[in-house]
Specification:
- The complex is a heterodimer of chains A (about 300) and B (about 350).
- Chain A is of the alpha/beta class and about 300 residues long.
- Chain A has helices spanning about 20-30, 45-55, 100-110, 130-140, 190-200, 215-240, 250-260, 270-305; strands spanning about 5-10, 40, 65-70, 75-85, 85-90, 95, 115-125, 145-150, 160-170, 175-185, 210.
- The longest helix of chain A is centred in the last third of the chain and has 37 residues, at about 270-305.
- Chain B has two domains: about 25-75 and about 85-210 and about 215-220, Cytidine Deaminase, domain 2 (3-Layer(aba) Sandwich); about 235-280 and about 290-340, no CATH class.
- Chain B has helices spanning about 1-15, 30-45, 85-100, 120-130, 145, 160-170, 175-180, 200-210, 225-280, 290-295, 305-335; strands at about 30, 55-60, 65-70, 105-110, 135-140, 155-160, 185-190, 190-195.
- Chain B has an eight-stranded mixed β-sheet with strand order 7-6-5-4-2-3-1-8.
- In chain B, helix 1 (about 1-15) packs parallel to helix 4 and helix 9 runs antiparallel to helix 11 (about 305-335).
- The N and C termini of chain B lie far apart (about 60 Å).
- The chains are: A alpha/beta (about 300), B alpha/beta (about 350).
- Chains A and B meet through helix 2, strand 4, helix 3, helix 5 and strand 11 of A and helix 2, strand 3, helix 3, helix 5 and strand 8 of B.
- Strand 11 (about 210) of chain A pairs antiparallel with strand 8 of chain B, so a sheet runs across the interface.
- Chain B: Belongs to the eIF-3 subunit H family.
- Chain B: This is Eukaryotic translation initiation factor 3 subunit H.
Chain lengths: ~300, ~350
């Protein structure tokens, strides 16, 4: 990083809390004292970018940090974008390229002016003293910033994704420390995002982690197969209930009733006529499309003559 | 618009690109976050029939093109006259280099409205990209089709024949006839393969566990008339353009043949007069330059016709795909009713 723009933050020995009490406090406390409600909504694009920047980190860097962008309202915070910020971390100091962060934010703002800085992220499991210092910097950029950690080292065999808000604690006037209180995370998707992610889930299955995009009718077939799977799960549950293995749950029964009633009851002739007219429409359009294609092909050949 | 700043980059980047001259890649590898970013860009910034565009970054590995990142382009607003696209791009690339993101320009992406993207602007942009980097592609993202249930992302590249023609800028009928290029040979589609790292797979696993089951299965939606109506409307507009074009070409042909006839008649009259004069002993009339008298009519540009034909072809393909899907769904609905007819 360029020398003039980094901020050198010395490690302050006045902080009398070491890292382990942070973690224990986190595990105990669930009451939220922050301005934000308990929800943080994250879009999957943010997580994918974080994982990607972790994979591209510099040699020797154990973690990556970056800024989170999004929108915040009274009840929840929605994280929609992020970018990584180069930083250097060693035993006793932390250097973050804040000018870079500002520049990137300006550039991003040109594309989506409604996104604001709402916090920052770091990969790794714990919250260290350096995190506290970085968090202070971000508090200057955004009111009550969110800190998100993504455990890319897979410490507990899972990628733990957590979000925290900081609040003051301690004796006022004397040693004051910072406490990070966890927030609940919800993943939210736009409809199209959901469809994209569902498709990409299939890369998990293939050994080379690749997946092509399938053709039209095959997609309908796979969606139908999906529904069939769900139906068979339900059927096995119903059979269990009927044979007495599982206790009947009334709410589930009501849903089932709803489901069966959803198939509309139409007389056979009406349904035949509806079906036939729809099929005719579709066939006609297909025929016209084919005709059009033949026509332009002919036209082409005639011109060349 | 994209062509302007690309010239600045091409000189710098050319030295760093692999020097493969005749290139035909088998497929394009795309990462998860590129797909998600493109989806998000359209979702947040695109409205209606406006297109959103952006740049693709990645690298070339052996004969494959890998797209690893992308960044969006701001919309063109009228009140932002002094917005410098070149500077935006340069700054973005410079910043991304700091965080070790591949800063090689390998193409660009664009969203489309019901599949209408075959246009002169796209051709020009893609040509300038491909001219500098052989392997570049344009990713076309169709948000409306995606919203119907399946991700629709296609990668296109200009065929070598079309590249030749664009290079020579010879769009006359003779030029196109020489290259014998048809509307089907303008763009070649490159298959896209989604490739993810192991860590992304872990992330996907986590996401699947934590998110609720999708409650909208758009792919099994039975209603089709809306979509069909709009597609057919667009198709009809294009057909009108096409017929106008054909009309123009016909008049050109007619004019040309009329002119040929006139030329013949003139020559004949000339010969007759000369014969008469010779019989009377007078000197023959000087040979006039007939080409100056009968100027050949302007041949209409064939490129637009090609583009329109390509677009119509595209529309027809999309419509056929859509109808086949819907036919399948209708038969499923029939089975659900349980009426054995």
């Amino acid at each position: 990083p360029s020398s003039g723009a980094t901020a050198r933050i010395p490690w302050r020995p006045a902080l009398s809390f070491s890292s382990s009490p942070f973690v224990t406090i986190l595990h105990f406390l669930y009451k939220i004292m922050a301005v934000h409600g308990p929800f943080v909504k994250i879009h999957p694009v943010v997580l994918a970018s974080i994982v990607d920047s972790y994979e591209r980190r510099n040699e020797g860097a154990s973690r990556v940090i970056g800024t989170l962008l999004g929108t915040a309202d009274k009840h929840s915070v929605e994280v929609t974008n992020c970018f990584s910020v180069p930083h250097n971390e060693s035993e006793d100091e932390v250097a973050v390229d804040m000018e870079f962060a500002k520049n990137m934010y300006e550039l991003h703002k040109k594309v989506s002016p409604s996104e604001v800085i709402i916090g920052w992220y770091a990969t790794g499991y714990d919250i260290t003293e350096h995190s506290v210092l970085i968090h202070e910097y971000y508090s200057r950029e955004a009111p009550n910033p969110i800190h998100m950690t993504v455990d890319t080292a897979l410490q507990s065999n899972k990628m733990n994704i957590r979000a925290y808000v900081s609040s003051q604690m301690g004796v006022p006037g004397k040693t004051v420390g910072v406490m990070f209180t966890p927030l609940t995370i919800k993943y939210i998707y736009y409809d199209t995002e959901r469809i994209g992610v569902d498709l990409l889930q299939r890369t998990r299955a293939s050994p080379s982690r690749t997946n092509g995009l399938t053709t039209d009718l095959a997609q309908v077939a796979s969606a139908a197969g999906h529904v069939q799977e769900m139906l068979s799960t339900m059927l096995s549950y119903i059979e269990d209930v009927l044979s007495g293995k599982v206790m009947a749950d009334n709410s589930v029964g009501r849903y089932l009733m709803d489901l069966v009633n959803k198939v509309p009851k139409i007389t056979a002739e009406d349904f035949e006529s509806m079906l036939n007219s729809n099929i005719n429409d579709l066939l006609m359009v297909t025929y016209l499309a084919n005709l059009t294609q033949a026509q332009i092909a002919l036209n082409e050949k005639l011109v060349v003559l | 618009m994209l062509t302007v700043f690309f010239d600045l980059w091409s000189d710098k980047k050319r030295s760093k690109i692999s020097s493969v001259k005749t290139f035909s890649s088998s497929c394009v590898f795309v990462r998860l976050q590129v797909v998600l970013k493109i989806i998000k860009h359209y979702q947040e910034e695109g409205q209606g029939s406006e297109v959103v565009q952006g740049v693709l970054l990645g690298l070339v590995v052996e004969d494959r093109l890998e797209i690893t990142n992308c960044f969006p382009f701001p919309q063109h607003t009228e009140d932002d006259v002094d917005f410098d696209e070149v500077q935006y791009q340069m700054e973005m690339m410079r910043s991304l280099r700091h965080v070790n993101i591949d800063h090689l320009h390998v193409g660009w992406y664009q969203s489309t409205y019901y599949g209408s993207f075959v246009s002169r602007a796209l051709l020009d942009s893609q040509f300038s990209y491909q001219h500098a980097i052989e392997e570049s592609v344009v990713l076309i993202y169709d948000p409306i089709k995606t919203a119907q249930g399946s991700l629709c992302l296609k990668a296109y590249r200009l065929t070598p024949k079309l590249m030749e023609i664009c290079k020579e800028k010879d769009f006359s009928p003779e030029g196109l006839k020489k290259a014998c290029i048809g509307y089907e040979h303008m763009f070649e589609e490159v298959p896209i393969v989604i490739k993810n790292s192991h860590l992304i797979n872990v992330l996907l696993l986590d996401l699947q566990e934590k998110s609720t089951v999708a409650d909208k299965h758009e792919l099994l939606n039975l209603s089709s008339s809306n979509h069909l109506e709009k597609s057919l409307q667009l198709l009809m507009d294009r057909m009108d353009d096409m017929s106008q074009d054909i009309g123009k070409y016909n008049t050109y042909c007619r004019n040309l043949s009329k002119q040929q006839q006139q030329k013949q008649q003139y020559l004949q009259r000339r010969q007759q007069e000369n014969a008469q004069r010779q019989s009377r002993g007078e000197p023959p009339l000087p040979e006039e330059d007939i080409s100056k008298m009968f100027k050949p009519p302007q041949a209409p540009a064939r490129m637009d016709t090609l583009l329109i034909a390509g677009q119509i072809n595209n529309y027809c393909q999309n419509i056929k795909e859509f109808t086949s899907q819907n036919l399948g769904k209708l038969f499923m609905a029939e089975a659900l009713q349980g009426h054995s007819s």
